[in-house]
Amino acid sequence: MSADPSAAYRRGFLASLPFIAMIAPFGLLFGVVATGQGLSMFETMAFTVMVIAGAAQFVALQLMQEGAPVLVTILTAAAVNLRMAMYSVSITPYLGAASLWQRMAIAYCLVDQSYVVGVAEFARQPGWTLRERIAFYWGVVSPIVPVWYASTWGGAAFGKAIPKDVPLDFIVPITFLAMIAPLLLTRAQIAAAAVSVLVALVLWWMPYSTGLLVAGIAAMLTGALVEMWEERRHAAN
């Protein structure tokens, strides 16, 4: 059943609300860590507004503090964010016909939550028009992005007042597990996830977290090989 754009927007807004409980502590933690490691309020906010990708921000910040070469920092953060390129490919059939300025805004706001919720809903609503899909997407994004900015600012401004025994860092792995686990549906996806975890753990000793680069490449190769194997098996049958 098709919905009008305003109804689709409300649906997206409501669908994104559960993520706020994870995004707010995530942003708060980044603000605390960034200012705790010497970044000014302006630098912290510029970082979070320009990158708008929590995992890559934490990795880049850690490498910067370790004195890693700029190229290593950029490559490692890019590897962490490489999933965004795959998100873009996956979501293009639903939103690719939007205007240029809309695609630019959609790309900027393409984060884990907007992708996961958006693609799942678009698949459930094949009758939606482009306007309805875009409205739903903005409904998802509209609470997420401001909360990310505000929570980062809150962590940077008031981080010193947060008791040290409050375990904010637990929210990082929980956030990604909650989002990624439901998406592991095929053998290729499960194999890629398993290999990435295993390689990252085995190569923990590599300097400047470059083990993440190797883990990302190994995961992509594994996923591609498993998909090729399955295609050949189906063709043989």
What's the arrangement of secondary structure elements?
Elements: H1 5-36, H2 41-51, H3 54-65, H4 70-80, H5 83-95, H6 100-108, H7 112-124, H8 130-158, H9 171-180, H10 187-202, H11 211-236
Count of distinct strands: 0
Q: In percent terms, what proportion of residues is strand?
A: under 5%
Radius of gyration, in angstroms, nearest whole number:
19 Å
Residues in helices, as a percent range: over 70%
Number of helices: 11
- The dominant shape is globular
Sum this structure up briefly:
The chain is mainly alpha-helical and 237 residues long. The chain has 11 helices and no strands.
Describe the structure.
This protein folds into two domains: 5-183, no CATH class; 186-237. The relative contact order is 0.16. The longest helix is centred in the first third of the chain and has 32 residues, at 5-36. The protein contains eleven helices and no strands. By secondary structure, the chain is an all-alpha fold. The radius of gyration is 19 Å and the shape is globular.
What keywords describe this structure?
mainly alpha; single chain
